[in-house]
Amino acid sequence: MQYLLLCAAILLPETLAFPAQFKPQSWSNTDFENIKAYLDKFFPILSKTKSLSLEDRIKEMQRFFHLTVTGKIDVETEETMKKPRCGLPDVEDYTTFPGRPRWKKTHLTYRIVNYTPDLPPKKVDNAIKRALMVWSDVTPLEFERVFQGHADIVVGFARREHGDGYPFDGRGNTLAHAFAPGEGIGGDAHFDDDERWSESNREVNLFLVAAHEFGHSLGLGHSDKREALMYPLYSFVNPSTFRLSEDDKRGIQKLYGKRSPNS
Ligand code: TQI
Ligand code: CA
Ligand code: ZN
Ligand code: ZN
After folding, report:
1. Which residue's CA is the nearest one to ligand 1's atom 14?
2. In angstroms, rounded to a whole number, what is the distance separating the alpha carbons of residues 227 and 244?
3. Coil, helix or strand for 163?
4. Which atom belonging to ligand 1 lies closest to the Cα atom of 174?
5. DSSP track, 1-41
6. Quick one: what percent of the chain has pLDDT higher than 70?
């Protein structure tokens, strides 16, 4: 499952994070992903524009460390990135996406457009509903299911190429993905129908994966805390006793605030 830790491709709706031509020839894919992951984790973009280039973000990091500001990954910059981050203020472990996209309303709609043959539709409906409740339980967010027309979060099952440029990969590996908050495909969650979805610990538990994906749909990236739902490694926990970790809670409440006591 190591690939997951390197898997930092952020699915941003409009600006597809970094078009291929920005990628210098001399970097391997892994280097590139690592640099991006590093920047996403430690230098989440603070400005409101989503259009900071990788170069701008490297410059920001170089300024922070008082390095020569070149916007390029030179030796000095690379060395700094590899150093353990001691002496820096301890950041939270949860992450948000560059530009910190979030929904600007608390009433969100979702629509389930199709079903997996692995589970009865009722069980799918239920897993999706409970996965959203994981987040609405601790924030002012409310989710309303709609059956036609526009929905903020479109939920569906698909296999291989399915029209968004992020083809699924057959059984195993990628299980699902979701897009950061935004118009159009923003917020949508897709589940790989080449997986075997289940409501137990056999194969892949739909509720747990959906709860994780909706974290992305709402604006959370990955967390380094092992116990976090947003930790990028699938581990089965019993859905009926599932509890959101403090780290996930802090992350989502930072974006949307807390639920008021009597609602
Ligand atoms: N899908 C990845 C994930 O949801 C896709 C992804 C990587 C991603 N980076 C992202 C999506 C940033 C949005 C934003 O993390 S996955 C897990 C976990 C996956 C992985 O199929 O690998 C879960 C889906 F956390 F267990 F690794 C669900 Cl729970
Ligand atoms: Ca797959
Ligand atoms: Zn997709
Ligand atoms: Zn994830």
Report:
1. 10
2. 9
3. coil
4. 21
5. -HHHHH------SSS-SS-GGGS-TTS-HHHHHHHHHHHHH
6. 75
Question: How confident is the model over 200-221, as pLDDT tens digits?
Answer: 988 999 999 999 999 999 999 9
Which ligand ends up closest to the CA of 178? 1
Q: Tell how far the Cα of 23 is from the centroid of ligand 3, in angstroms.
A: 23
C-alpha to C-alpha distances, 37 to 51, 148, 197, 210, nearest whole angstrom: 17, 37, 29, 23
Residue whose structure tokens are 């999706």? 128
The alpha carbon of 260 and the centre of ligand 4 are apart by a number of angstroms equal to: 28
Average pLDDT, the chain: 83
Residues with CB under 6 A from ligand 1: 4, 7-11, 174-178, 208-209, 212-213, 216, 221, 232-234
Other beta carbons less than 10 A from residue 153's beta carbon: 25
State pLDDT tens for residues 58-85.
Answer: 877 776 667 778 888 888 778 777 665 4
- Active centre residues (catalytic): 213
For residue range 13-40, list pLDDT tens digits in order.
433 333 333 444 455 666 767 767 666 6
Record the tokens describing residue 101, joined without a space. 């996209």
pTM attached to this predicted model: 0.71
Residue nearest to atom 5 of ligand 1 (CA): 177
For ligand 1, atom 2, name the residue with the nearest CA.
177
Counting every residue written for the chain, the total comes to 263
